[in-house]
Design brief:
By secondary structure, the protein is mainly beta. It contains three helices and ten strands; from the N terminus they run E-E-E-H-E-E-E-E-H-E-H-E-E. Strand 4 and strand 5 form a beta hairpin. About 29% of the residues have low confidence.
Length: 133
């Protein structure tokens, strides 16, 4: 199957939630100047895929605390061009290489999302986000 690449227009549905850290889970952080791959942002359960371009920091286990957005609930897909900064950096990185019909869970630290500023009233500064796409 064809994988998404820079410049592709993607049509996706997603649920976005805020995370609260707890013990025994991982979150990915960008520790080098190299670009993270899509697999660097995909996490499932207590394991994470890794590559040479990102490292894992052991964090406290996460618990979902609040859904802040959902295209599924609106029943309207979200369209964007991948890799051209139309969306948060974590989405641009995490959606590269995605195939039609594929599902991904992206756990995105604040530095690859909305940073210390946050986004409106729903996403506070410093928030780690999880998207099921």
């Amino acid at each position: 199957p064809r994988k998404s690449k820079h410049g592709d227009i993607l049509e996706v549905h997603y649920d976005g939630t805020l995370l609260h850290p707890r013990k025994n889970d991982f979150i990915i952080s960008e520790k080098s100047s190299r670009r993270m791959t899509a697999h660097d942002l995909i996490m499932s359960g207590k394991s994470a895929h890794h590559s040479n371009s990102a490292s894992h920091d052991t964090m406290e286990e996460k618990e979902t605390i609040k859904k802040f957005d959902s295209s599924r609930e609106r029943e309207v897909p979200f369209y964007f061009t991948v890799g051209v900064s139309e969306v948060i950096k974590g989405w641009d990185m995490g959606m590269l290489g995605m195939c039609i019909g594929e599902k991904r869970k992206l756990i995105i630290p604040s530095n690859l999302a909305y940073g210390e500023v946050g986004a409106g009233l729903d996403v506070p500064g410093g928030a780690t986000l999880i998207f099921e796409v």
